[in-house]
């Protein structure tokens, strides 16, 4: 992360931001946690996934609406604003909806108001400034945008693997013939490798004694080295798969723009998405998952020095998140779920590093002040509660398998709460090998097939 700074203008106010960071991270460091409001009840929304997968951070940037602030780097003179502040009654109305939304019946939807047509038009006109959908771009923004260049054609390949984590690298090594391996991270190993790199570069001793994390890091490093040494595997990092079109075409986006590629075989190993468990106010800005934390710290260099932070949950990601927060200079509190209290190495590490550790507790409620997370209530199995002040809370529970592309290619999905959400039918062992309706070979593997990170480490051989 660069030490130089640029000046952006948030709703007319000058804000100094580190060059290279995202708009979302820069605003959070200056106390702006609410980047938008929910369209229906006006509840504040802040950075959530940090990967462009949700709508929480859609803002108006340099006259262009619906720009993802989590993926947009700051630039000197950039103009940034929320999209739902275009009417003087917007802010007070959002507060009313936020406080009184529970009074509406379940399933209430504003588009019920369709008759008479004159009243409907007036209602929709008054509602639009609250919804955050954005006004049309300013004329200057149209001129600056210019013509979009056509997508490059990358031709036909034998196997395309999407996702360079443990499962994706393993599938790329096992595939026959020429392979293209794509990932939106900048290195093979996915999001967790970037987190490990940041921890070990800053304070390697943080991981001392945590053998399960050492094993995970070793597996990532080993597979990455093998992939990078394999001449038949073309690695394309910093590349996102935008979508798939049957029978065999995929649209990619990288630093050069859009590109299309066709593949005889496709492997979907894109991992999982952060998910929040159910508790009161679980949508407040400042509540994120571990994957979002990895991006905000490893990619954006989010400044957390001296901040009070909480990690709640279980597994590899809970411990790695705590180590990453410690490395960033944050004050760390860890709350382990019931049944996750017997790891002597973790207890010793928490004591050595000065973490506040709560065992056998889960989040019961979040509390906000001025649209920003202020504290979290932890509940224990005996009915007791503990209030933990925090600016940021990382919730490391079972993630949702990413199923976007598999669904677009015709895979049958089933809802399996035990494995985090929708998973491919037939992927009971964490892997599905099938043929799409159009005859393309398709593999869904790893967390995208419902495998937990801990099980993935055991399943994939070095």
Topology record:
Blueprint: E1 5-10, E2 13-18, H1 23-29, E3 36-37, E4 44-45, E5 58-61, E6 64-68, E7 79-81, H2 90-100, H3 117-131, H4 139-145, E8 152-162, H5 166-174, E9 179-182, H6 190-203, H7 211-229, E10 233-236, E11 240-245, E12 249-254, E13 257-268, E14 272-273, E15 287-288, H8 290-299, E16 308-313, H9 315-327, E17 331-336, H10 344-353, E18 356-359, E19 361-369, E20 372-380, E21 385-389, E22 392-396, E23 400-401, H11 404-408, E24 413-416, E25 421-424, E26 431-435, E27 441-445, H12 453-459
Parallel strand pairs: 1-7, 8-9, 8-13, 9-10, 13-27, 15-22, 16-17, 16-22, 17-18
Antiparallel strand pairs: 1-2, 3-4, 5-6, 5-7, 11-12, 12-13, 14-23, 19-20, 20-21, 24-25, 26-27
Helix pairs in contact: 5-7, 6-8, 6-9, 8-9
Q: What is the oligomeric state here?
A: single chain
At CATH level 2, the architecture of the largest domain is 3-Layer(bba) Sandwich
CATH topology (level 3) name of the largest domain: FAD/NAD(P)-binding domain
In this structure, how is the largest beta sheet organized?
A: 8 strands, mixed
How confident overall, as mean pLDDT?
A: 88
CATH class of the largest domain: Alpha Beta
Shape: globular
Could you please describe the fold and organization of this structure?
This protein is an alpha/beta fold and 462 residues long. The protein has 3 domains: 5-145, 2Fe-2S iron-sulphur cluster binding domain, sarcosine oxidase, alpha subunit, N-terminal domain (Ubiquitin-like (UB roll), Roll), CATH 3.10.20; 152-273 and 400-459, FAD/NAD(P)-binding domain (3-Layer(bba) Sandwich); 287-396, FAD/NAD(P)-binding domain, CATH 3.50.50.60. The protein has helices spanning 23-29, 90-100, 117-131, 139-145, 166-174, 190-203, 211-229, 290-299, 315-327, 344-353, 404-408, 453-459, and strands spanning 5-10, 13-18, 36-37, 44-45, 58-61, 64-68, 79-81, 152-162, 179-182, 233-236, 240-245, 249-254, 257-268, 272-273, 287-288, 308-313, 331-336, 356-359, 361-369, 372-380, 385-389, 392-396, 400-401, 413-416, 421-424, 431-435, 441-445. The strands form 7 sheets. Strands 8, 9, 10, 11, 12, 13, 26 and 27 form an 8-stranded mixed sheet that branches. Helix 6 runs parallel beside helix 9 (315-327) and helix 8 (290-299) runs parallel beside helix 9. It is globular. The two termini are 32 Å apart.
């Amino acid at each position: 992360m660069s030490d130089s700074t640029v000046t952006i203008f948030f709703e007319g106010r000058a804000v100094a931001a580190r060059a290279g960071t995202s708009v979302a991270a820069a605003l959070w460091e200056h106390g702006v946690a609410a980047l938008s409001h929910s369209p229906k009840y006006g509840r504040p929304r802040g950075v959530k996934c940090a990967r462009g997968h949700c709508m929480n951070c859609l803002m108006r940037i340099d006259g262009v609406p619906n720009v993802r602030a989590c993926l947009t780097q700051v630039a000197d003179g950039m103009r940034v604003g929320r999209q739902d502040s275009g009417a003087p009654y917007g802010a007070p109305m959002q507060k009313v909806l936020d406080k009184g939304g529970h009074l509406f019946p379940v399933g209430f939807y504003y588009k019920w108001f369709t008759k008479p047509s004159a009243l409907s038009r007036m209602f929709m006109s008054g509602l639009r400034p609250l919804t955050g959908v954005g006004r049309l771009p300013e004329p200057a923004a149209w001129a600056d945008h210019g013509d979009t260049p056509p997508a490059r054609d990358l031709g036909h390949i034998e196997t395309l693997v999407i996702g360079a984590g443990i499962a994706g690298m393993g599938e790329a090594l096992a595939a026959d013939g020429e392979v293209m391996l794509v990932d939106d991270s900048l290195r093979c190993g996915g999001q967790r490798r970037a987190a490990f790199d940041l921890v070990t570069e800053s304070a390697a001793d943080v991981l001392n004694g945590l053998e399960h994390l050492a094993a995970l890091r070793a597996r990532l490093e080993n597979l990455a080295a093998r992939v990078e040494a394999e001449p038949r595997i073309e690695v394309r990092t910093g590349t996102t798969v935008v979508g798939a079109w049957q029978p065999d075409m995929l649209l990619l986006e990288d630093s050069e723009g859009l590109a299309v590629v066709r593949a005889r075989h496709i492997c979907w190993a894109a991992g999982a998405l952060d998910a929040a468990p159910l508790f009161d106010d679980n949508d407040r800005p400042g509540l994120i998952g571990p994957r979002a934390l990895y991006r905000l710290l490893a990619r954006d260099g989010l400044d957390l020095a001296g901040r009070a932070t909480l990690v709640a949950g279980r597994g590899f990601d809970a411990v790695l998140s705590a180590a990453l927060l410690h490395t960033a200079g944050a004050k760390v509190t860890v709350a382990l779920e019931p049944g996750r209290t017997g790891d002597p190495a973790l207890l010793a590490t928490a004591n050595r590093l000065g973490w506040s550790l709560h065992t056998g507790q889960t989040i019961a409620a979040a509390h906000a002040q001025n649209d920003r997370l202020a504290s979290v209530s932890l509940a224990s199995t005996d009915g007791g509660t503990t209030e933990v002040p925090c600016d940021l809370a990382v919730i490391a529970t079972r993630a949702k398998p990413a199923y976007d592309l598999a669904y677009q290619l015709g895979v049958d999905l089933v809802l399996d709460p035990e494995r985090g959400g929708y998973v491919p039918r037939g992927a009971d062992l964490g892997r599905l090998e099938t043929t799409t309706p159009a005859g393309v070979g398709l593999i869904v593997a790893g967390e995208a097939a419902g495998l937990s990170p801990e099980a993935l480490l055991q399943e994939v051989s070095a």
